[in-house]
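Translate structure to sequence.
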């Protein structure tokens, strides 16, 4: 594995961990859960509101922009997300609920005896058919970001920092 490939892989792994940090940070977002099934009309309506941010946009704005600024906004992550979405029964790119007003104490109140922060299955590695948790998919997100960045760099779409 060449230095450039290693650098992209390391940065993408760091990016996936950073994505979890962004998504799970109490001061930034309410939670890391996402609804798995949307009707087209309901999804379109939610996109019009500023309470939800699509996972691909979140990854581009907060991860790719940080680890490979030249690639920000140039990498279409949706094709990389689609196989995972199909396998997981997810109808649309996950929308992450954006809430800048949740307090640290409100989020802490969700903690359970296992140390899982958040309601229900959050942090357990389990999911319901209706709700998924980004934290349960960090391995996939790491792989997806690595592949997308490597493809973008090798196809000359953008450059990875030296």
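Result:
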């Amino acid at each position: 594995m060449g230095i450039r490939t290693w650098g992209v892989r390391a940065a993408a792994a760091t990016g996936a961990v950073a994505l979890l940090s962004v998504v799970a940070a109490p001061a930034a977002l309410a939670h890391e859960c996402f609804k798995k099934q949307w009707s087209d009309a309901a999804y379109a309506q939610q996109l019009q509101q500023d309470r939800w941010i699509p996972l691909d946009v979140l990854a581009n704005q907060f991860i790719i922009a940080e680890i490979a600024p030249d690639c920000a906004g140039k990498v279409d992550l949706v094709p990389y997300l689609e196989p995972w979405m199909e396998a997981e029964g997810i109808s649309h790119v996950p929308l992450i609920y954006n809430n800048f007003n949740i307090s640290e104490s409100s989020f802490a109140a969700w903690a359970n005896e296992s140390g899982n922060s958040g309601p229900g299955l959050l942090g357990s590695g389990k999911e319901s058919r209706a709700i998924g948790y980004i934290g349960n998919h960090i391995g996939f997100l790491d792989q997806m970001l690595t592949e997308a960045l490597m493809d973008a760099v090798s196809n000359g779409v953008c450059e990875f920092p030296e």
